[in-house]
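Hi support team,

I'm opening this ticket because the web form for multi-chain structure prediction keeps timing out on my end. I have pasted the exact lines I submitted so you can reproduce it. The total is 692 residues across two entries, so I didn't expect it to be a heavy job. Is there a limit I'm missing, or should I split the entries? Thanks in advance, R.K.
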Amino acid sequence: MTASRRVVLDRIRAALAAAPADAVQVPRDYDRTPAAGPGDADRFADAVCEYRAQVHRVGTDELAATILRLLPPGARVVVPADLPADWVGGLRVVADSAENPLSSAELDRADAVVTGCALGIAATGTIVLDAGAAQGRRALTLVPDHHVCVVFTDQIVDTVPQAFAALDPLLPLTFISGPSATSDIELDRVEGVHGPRTLDVLLVRR
Amino acid sequence: MTTFLGTPGFGNLRGDEPFPVAARRELRNAQMRRNVAHATRTIRAKRLVAVAECADWEELRAAGSALKRDVLARLPELLEELEANVVARGGMVHWARDAAEANQIVTDLVRAAGADEVVKVKSMATQEIGLNEHLAAQGIAAIETDLAELIVQLDNDTPSHILVPAIHRNRAEIREIFTREMPDAGDLTDEPQVLAMAARAHLRRKFLSAKVAVSGANFGIAETGTLAVVESEGNGRMCLTLPDTLITVMGIEKVVPRFADLEVFMQLLPRSSTAERMNPYTSMWTGVHPGDGPQQFHLVLLDNGRTAVLGDPAGRAALHCIRCSACLNVCPVYERTGGHAYGSVYPGPIGAILSPQLTGTRGHGDPNASLPYASSLCGACFDACPVRIDIPAILVHLRAAQVDAGHSRGQDLAMRAAAWAMRSPRRFALAERLLGAGRFFAGSDHRITALPWPGSRWTASRDVPEPPAETFRQWWARTHGGQARP
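Hello R.K., no limit was hit. The queue was backed up. Here is the completed structure from your submission:
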């Protein structure tokens, strides 16, 4: 294996030595405007809606009632252990944590998962999870068929470069743009394959 | 399992017949042509809308192109940096010179994990090395979980498109395949939604019980050791999250210097491939995240001919490719022949420059030697390419290399004959008169579609315009006869 490592690196160096490549200056004149204040919540909401996710714009005081209304009575709901309890008041929830993880089978039996997020991108209608506060580990937002995700308006950035500037690459990152979908049949987008088939985004003014 | 014969050592990079022969057969498949034409027309229109939304699209393309040039210029350092960071965060890194070595590494890792089954995320690298066939021969079942890959695998077919391997199938054919190969699926209609649900039900248990997953990678970040997989269905997230062991096979050219560089590629790739502002899911992970996802992570860095491509400064830009497939969707040749005619897992314009360079070509009879000619050089692929690969220029470069190597005898002979005729005014006038006889072969549309041998070698694939009734010299003699030359 170390022999192959040396062979491959030697081959690359030989190829570059025979035909050296010039040093490259990467032009960065695409839109890299740094974020100044929260991003455009209306644009974010419109873009998320276009993926056929449901966007609910609510105030902080309506958060729990809206979540309660989105889930059928008696729904089995899983949440990350650090989800603020007042988001899911009135619901019976099962908490998942690194110390007490639910099995994949248990997650599969859940009807829904409620989480927060790391940030939202207005230009693309994307939600990013980084396993930080109120998000839990990655399997939690993947196996249950219904994901209710809380996004605060001050978590929204306008552009993709602003999102990458704000994210920490050493955390496990998941970019979510609408419910799971496929374009594999005649290159036409169909929503709902292996990931959650329903995505409700609660856009909360803050 | 599959009809790919492949190339010893290289995997599925070379078909067993030249492009013109394969294309002629594929062109007779009217259903395939309708399916591919319909799908590519749909995606072409959507891509234009998605691209037009970005005011800075050309600046993004320029940045993407420069980033990839920078990567190749600093490839050894970046790979060593990537390796060090993956290892520092709990992953293992393996190096593979060719397909056979990569397959062996993966097989050993699967065995070490005590598994006889793996779930797979769609990956061109593992298609390229023929991993599924190799694992099957070793008694390990590889289950493709991407919808289109599943369709291809269930039908014992081969992929015909980089992004949508089953693009040559329409919904009715897919329904037939599912009904035949997934008896538990019950009554299916040909609604795409219904077919997608059947795939979900079919794969659900596999995801929840799989011990080992195999993926490719869209990007590997040198400065952090982060790997990224861009997908749509959530099958990628399932494979990258639920099994305890993850094996990622990545071509060495997929390394990217910095995390922030993804701000360019994550705008270019989704809009170019599925014409979306963003694909539904992108996963990024760095080594092992304790308590979250696979606790064993292996990265296999694959050469398999890439260093040979790097050695040609005029052709190495083929390694910039981010596998979006926009060039396939805009190519008039691909739209008519479909992907199988190219023989390699990389079809279309990018395949025509990548496959022959990865394998090298062994003379005129090599099927991959015909690929640089599978183009009208219209340039649509260059315009569509998000990282500005000048595919037409590389096609011409590869054609020229073959002529220089003396691989093109028919053309040589024709050119020598033309040179001989053109060297003397008398011979040229005679040749013109002879060519005038070609009017006899022209149809009512003033085109010649069939000539006797050796002209047939040209007309087998191209029309010839009817020679004019009067040549320039005849016209000059008639209208300026007897006048002094100006």
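A quick check on our side: The mean pLDDT of chain A is 95. Let us know if the file doesn't open in your viewer.
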